[in-house]
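ATP synthase complex subunit 8, pasting as requested.
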Amino acid sequence: MPQLNPAPWLLIMLTSWLTFTLIIQPKLLPFTPINTPSNKPSATANPSPWNWPWS
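Structure tokens follow.
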């Protein structure tokens, strides 16, 4: 069964994870998000019943 042979994909997976954790992730972490969350309370909507013309 060729799926059980780790030789073709194990090195590629380890290389990609090391690239992500050592190079890409430190470059992405200093960025601040554009839309910071606010502490405004969410307004609850009070729906009014719909008056159907056939009822």
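Note for the archive: The chain has a mean pLDDT of 81.
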